[in-house]
Amino acid sequence: MIKACLFDLDGVIVDTAKYHYKAWKKMANSLGFDFSEKENEQLKGVSRMDSINLILGWGGITLSEADKAKWASQKNDWYLEYLQKMDKSEILPGALELVQELKEKGYRVALGSSSKNAVLALSKVGMLHYFEAIIDGTKTTRSKPDPQVFEMGAAALDCKPSECIVFEDAESGVEAAIAGGFYAVGMGSPDNLGKAHLVLSSLEGVSIDDILVKITIS
Ligand code: BG6
Ligand code: MG
What we know:
The protein is α/β, with parallel strands linked by helices.
């Protein structure tokens, strides 16, 4: 029986994936190269330092660890400029309604994000109080596709993975959920999220009962 839902943040609850992309692009452009939206898909769910390593690889650039840290911090400053301007309008369609429905129906709700800015982003859009546990990049030691973030979320809610549904927009996140024995709902396209139990293009108008039927759980 499903008792809990674990939500990724960027690209599931809030429309921040575009800001991560913009900020990383700014860094790449400053270093004299560019990368595509398709390449950007590989960055979703991936930690800040793992992301910079991938991007520099695409640009064929080698930096010292100190320079990498400097650029990662610069990227984060750019990202925070976008984040500071966020309000409720950046909640993705249907996310607030689904979380509210879950709370009303007695499901446990937690966040499972790779971001170190998760608390700030949730505060900016007024959704922090809905999450009983927040497992984010400040608490994990292993990046998705490792299931650690969701395992910690399930443990914080006192639930087994098989009692939880994970909502994820990243391929690495869906892989993490499946590796941990969770039910996975992919948010986006079946092209890269096909391993999920269910793929939705949006949460708009979606209720937990629809999801339970579609992933054939009773
Ligand atoms: C994930 C995003 O949620 O968090 C990634 O999908 C991002 O794109 C990662 O790199 C780390 O985020 P932050 O805010 O700690 O740099
Ligand atoms: Mg995401």
